[in-house]
Amino acid sequence: MIGPNTCLLLLALLETSQALRYLGRVNPATKELTWSATGVSFTFSGTSATIGFEAVTGSNSAELIVDGKSTYIADVKGTSISTPSNLTSGNHTVEFRKSSEALFGSIFLGNITTDGTFGSDSPISSRKIEIVGDSITSAYGIGAALPCTNTAALEIISEGYSVLTASALKADYSIISWSGIGVIRNYASSQPDASPTMPERYTKYGANDASGSYMFPSSSAPDAVVINLGTNDFGHNNVRPKLTGEEYTAAIVSFVRTISSSYGNDPTFFLLTSPMLNDGYPAGEMVKSTQRNALTDAVTRLNGTRAVVVDWPDQGSDLGCDYHPTPNTNLVGAGLLVESMRSVLGW
């Protein structure tokens, strides 16, 4: 026989499950926040709410947004995080998002509680964007200026072009990014990077899950997919052969077709050139032009799949950690992407 206390507990759990919504690609079986900007959102009526953590591994930064007001957490510690103590009794909206990328660490969500009652989640935008990329998309080093070395605390994803773009377009979004990754090969070093390239890593549910674990549910199918890969592909650092435009074009075409067939909803693809590539370095290689031309060729070959190139200018001397884009450079990229998406999608 089920006692009254058990019934109350079951009702509370049911209420919570209905109120919570995972943000981005979060495996509900593990509740592990891995990818940048993954998290949870909910509403409640009361004066406080607490998000419990089953575990926190490595280093993680995060953002807590309560009723539209953001608090940045440079180093997530402890077993929980609570809403501000000065909330008045009433209805409140909460978002908790991991800011740093998967390679630094993970946050495992636990119980979420309130002194009041949970409500239905805020309306979800009908517009969905998926952004796929490398360190640029991870907002690597965006929180400081050169000279500095990147840390989890400096990856402030809300200042990155991806979140700026989605916010401007009032779109729901998911970010799949990993620093040093490429579409055909990863960052060039004396010891070859044998870790997965993006076409394989993209098939993971959480970033630490098995390859092929993500099932591409129709409810998450994006209207638009942004691909910002190539910075690491074209880098050779004199330890490997130069990449040809033809090799890059073929890899992009293959990846786009894989994504399109995985979701099966024929999204529009926005292919970004890299602000970290330019025609002056390495000398005589004209890398930026090679990438731009290769992406243009990819669009031509993707006949039947709607795809456009968004040319992001060189970042110049405005540099973040390890020569990565600053908030200003990300604003430029977001502006160009928003303009293109509005023109193509009518948003």
Walk me through the structure:
Residues 22-115 form the Carbohydrate esterase 2 N-terminal domain. Keywords: Signal. It holds the Pfam family Lipase_GDSL. The chain has 347 residues and is of the alpha/beta class. It folds into two domains: 4-119, Galactose-binding domain-like (Jelly Rolls), CATH 2.60.120; 128-345, Rossmann fold. It is built from seven helices and 15 strands. A hairpin with a 2-residue loop joins strand 5 (62-66) and strand 6 (69-73). It starts with a helix and ends with a helix.
Secondary-structure element pattern, one letter each: HEEEEEEEEEEEHEHEHHEHEH
The average pLDDT score comes to 94
C-alpha end-to-end distance? 55 Å
Low-confidence blocks of residues: 1-17
Q: What is the global morphology?
A: globular
According to CATH, what is the topology of the largest domain?
Rossmann fold
Summarize the amount of helix as a percent range: 10-25%
* SS field, number of helical segments: 7
CATH class (first level) name of the largest domain = Alpha Beta
Approximately what portion of the residues adopt beta-strand conformation?
Answer: 15-25%
Corresponding CATH superfamily of the largest domain: SGNH hydrolase
Work out the number of β strands: 15
Tell me the radius of gyration.
21 Å
CATH architecture descriptor text of the largest domain: 3-Layer(aba) Sandwich
Pfam families: CE2_N, Lipase_GDSL
Keywords: Signal
Signal peptide: 1-19
Protein name: Carbohydrate esterase 2 N-terminal domain-containing protein
